[in-house]
Amino acid sequence: MLLDKEGFIIDIDGVVGKSKTPIVEGVEAVKRLKKIGKKIIFVSNNSTRSRRILLDRLKSFGLEVTEEEILIATYATARFIAGEKPGAKVFTTGEKGLIEELELAGLRLVDYDEAEYLVVGSNRGINFDLLTRALRACLRGIRYVATNPDRIFPSEDGPIPGTGMIIGALYWMTGREPDVIVGKPSKVIMEEALKVLGLKPGEVAVVGDQIDVDVAAGKSIGADTVLVLTGVTTRDNLQQMIEKHGIEPDYILESLNSIFEG
Ligand SMILES: [Mg+2]
């Protein structure tokens, strides 16, 4: 039974909101889960925002959450690097949200020629100069960490390039892929989520709207997985998505609120 789980690791986009618009059933479900004492943590692959920015968005949906209940790829990346090498010197392609989290984790932001880590995250202001610096950092052979593997991000008015734009460019130029990818479906961010919750994989359910991202992430830690049909996956493309990715979710729900039915 899903409601026997002590904790829920929940995706944001496509579950409780679509960009700036709330998904009412998802928001309602999270409120009810919290009311009956379940531990929850939101996990997002977003690589341009900090926890503070995301917290404001969730609050605008009417959700009472704390920063500890949000695990975002920017923060998880900073935590991961600080865990490997406290105070490390990093060069990042990322923008404000990522820079904010790297600094908060005690890492030192430097240029490509001094860096011990190349941290790749999305940047909506990417230009030739920044890519040149990233290329040079990559060619130095330093440890290369990417916030997430997203190729395309579904924005309000249509698809936009994800972090994959930079990972792809670096790969084409140097043949290098990231040494570590932090965001879903990587288990790096999921293990961090378990650590924050203080729970084991068998005690949580992982909820999301994408089979290859959220369900795959849940399976990577051996947790039960819940696919909701309020985002990228819908009743219409469900079968096609399952076949395409070759992954079966443990539970399929119309919305997260269906968890309370039957
Ligand atoms: Mg999603």
- Kindly give the count of domains: 2
Structural class: alpha/beta
- Count of helical segments? 9
State the CATH architecture of the largest domain: 3-Layer(aba) Sandwich
Rg, Å, rounded: 18 Å
* Name given to the CATH homologous superfamily of the largest domain: HAD superfamily/HAD-like
Report, as a whole number of angstroms, the end-to-end distance.
10 Å
Profile the largest sheet.
6 strands, parallel
Q: Do you know the CATH topology of the largest domain?
A: Rossmann fold
Chain-averaged pLDDT: 95
Helix content: 25-40%
Give, in order, the helices and strands.
EEEHEHEHEHEEHEEEHEHEHEHE
**Shape estimate:** globular
Quick rundown:
With 262 residues, the protein is α/β, with parallel strands linked by helices. Helix content is 36%, strand content 21%. The strands form four sheets. A six-stranded parallel beta sheet has the order 5-4-1-13-14-15, with helices on both faces.
Can you describe what's shown?
The chain has 262 residues and is α/β, with parallel strands linked by helices. It folds into two domains: 2-45 and 184-260, Rossmann fold; 86-181, Rossmann fold (3-Layer(aba) Sandwich). The chain has nine helices and 15 strands. The strands form four sheets. The chain has a six-stranded parallel sheet, sandwiched between helices. A five-stranded parallel sheet has the order 7-6-8-9-12, sandwiched between helices. Strands 2-3 form a two-stranded antiparallel ribbon. A hairpin with a 2-residue loop joins strand 2 and strand 3 (21-22). The protein starts with 6 loop residues before the first strand and ends in a 9-residue tail after the last strand. The mean pLDDT is 95. The structure holds magnesium ion (MG). Magnesium ion (MG) is lined by residues 11, 13-14, 208-210, 231.
